[in-house]
């Protein structure tokens, strides 16, 4: 069954003066996705997010949020999204609950009980009555996310939500996002440059570089598209390198403590083994290595091919 589109971005572009910052990008975010929006510093992530929220006017392109066109039906589009774009500011001498009550009071349609619900969702219900000045950075960030949830959004956009957090704070935010996605049917669009976070949290990613979309898809799909890496356990490393160097399907060879790490075209590990054995090399093992998303990202953004 095709999943419902929650965020559709079609041919979006933006320049500042002569500088093209976002270049004709299209993104598809479906119901239930935890969608990672990745890119090196200055790639255009924040500018894109600001366009998704109507804070920056695009030069060209269309944004639909939950079926509402952002340009033509702004209120419906924006009311169905929650967003945390900068470090949230709170009244430090008030409690978490009191801070959320101030926001709730501006929106009479939000029931009182919602404050407790969202505090529970971000696991701050036991700190609800403590002053925000006693909160850690991670707790403040979670309170910021609670604030975005007050009006029952179907889509939540977070710009670098774990930026500046310690490992424990990052873990808490990560776990909370996964839980909200599962239990509350919230779709997330998260910009980050932390690749490890993406691997652990997101089911889909888009990679932006200098305003261009250079990859989009599931983490699994993107890695499957890439070369394979195997470790070849052998004592005859120098001879093995001489033999493999000439094979067109071998992309790179490095030495490891027990043999060689070889990057090759996907599907050629058996041929690699056969080539070595037929030339008299004693191959003890060929071990497939899981290529990390981090390596994939670095290959791609430092001069690799495009997988859009
Ligand atoms: N209002 C503006 N006027 C001129 N240039 C801008 C403006 N906003 C952003 N830029 C430029 O656009 C480019 C993309 O910036 P943007 O903040 O969108 O990137 P980013 O991917 O979010 O980077 P980072 O991870 O460092 O925040 C940068 O070169 C930035 O200097």
UniProtKB/TrEMBL annotation:
Gene3D superfamilies per UniProt: P-loop containing nucleotide triphosphate hydrolases
Segments forming domain ABC transporter: 7-235
Gene Ontology molecular function, alphabetical: ATP binding; ATP hydrolysis activity
TM regions (residue ranges): none
UniProt entry keywords in alphabetical sequence: ATP-binding, Nucleotide-binding, Transport
Listed Pfam families: ABC_tran (PF00005)
Record flagged with keyword Acetylation: no
Entry keyword Phosphoprotein: no
Family: Belongs to the ABC transporter superfamily.
Name listed for the protein in its UniProt record: ABC transporter ATP-binding protein
């Amino acid at each position: 069954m095709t999943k419902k589109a929650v965020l559709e971005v079609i041919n979006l572009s933006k320049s500042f003066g002569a500088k093209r910052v976002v270049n004709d990008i299209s993104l598809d975010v479906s119901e239930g996705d935890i969608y990672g929006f990745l890119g090196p510093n200055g790639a255009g992530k924040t500018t894109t997010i600001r366009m998704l929220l109507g804070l920056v006017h695009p030069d060209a392109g269309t944004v639909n949020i939950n079926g509402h066109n952002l340009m033509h039906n702004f209120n419906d589009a924006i009311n169905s999204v929650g967003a945390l774009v900068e470090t949230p500011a709170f009244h430090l001498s008030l409690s978490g609950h009191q801070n959320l009550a101030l926001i709730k009071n501006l929106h009479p349609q939000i029931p009182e009980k919602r404050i407790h619900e969202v505090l529970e969702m971000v696991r701050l219900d036991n700190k609800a009555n403590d002053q925000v000045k006693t909160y850690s950075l991670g707790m403040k960030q979670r309170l910021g996310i609670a604030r975005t949830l007050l009006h029952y959004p179907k889509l939540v956009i977070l710009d670098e939500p774990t930026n500046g957090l310690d490992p424990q704070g990052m873990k808490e935010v990560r776990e909370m996002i996964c839980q909200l996605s599962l239990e509350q049917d919230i779709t997330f669009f998260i910009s980050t440059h932390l690749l490890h976070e993406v691997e652990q949290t997101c089911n889909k990613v888009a990679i932006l570089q200098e305003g261009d979309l250079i990859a989009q898809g599931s983490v699994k799909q993107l890695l499957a598209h890439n070369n394979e890496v195997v470790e070849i356990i052998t004592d005859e490393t120098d001879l093995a390198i001489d033999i493999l160097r000439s094979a067109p399907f071998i992309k790179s060879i490095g030495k490891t403590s027990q043999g060689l790490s070889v990057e090759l075209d996907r599907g050629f590990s058996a041929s690699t083994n056969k080539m070595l054995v037929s030339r008299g090399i004693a191959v003890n093992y060929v071990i497939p290595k899981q290529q990390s998303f981090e390596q994939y990202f670095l290959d791609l953004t430092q001069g690799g091919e495009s997988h859009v």
